[in-house]
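Entry:
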Amino acid sequence: MYIEKGIATPLETVSTTGTGVTFSFPEHLSAGDFSVVFQAKSGTTIAADLQISLDGGTTFTNYAASFFAAAGAKALNAGGSTPAVAGALYRFNYTTLTGTWTILISSS
């Protein structure tokens, strides 16, 4: 799934632990840095690592361990230590879930 710039997108709805959908960010036409915001909402407890693959999805490793530890919004800022990288593949590895969670995403 490609995440288009400036469009808030429901990424997935999850209620069991394990890996989520694989997604990516296309090159932005402005050729500049970009940031991404994720929002987790609606469940009771959540713990998830954000994982990245640079080999086409063969191997995923933790890019931002414990990315979600509670409901709310989290960002990957262009100037941060874990910026979003266009073309890389990402997914969440949900290690703890109680209830049903909706994950939303938007890039700028």
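The mean pLDDT is 90.
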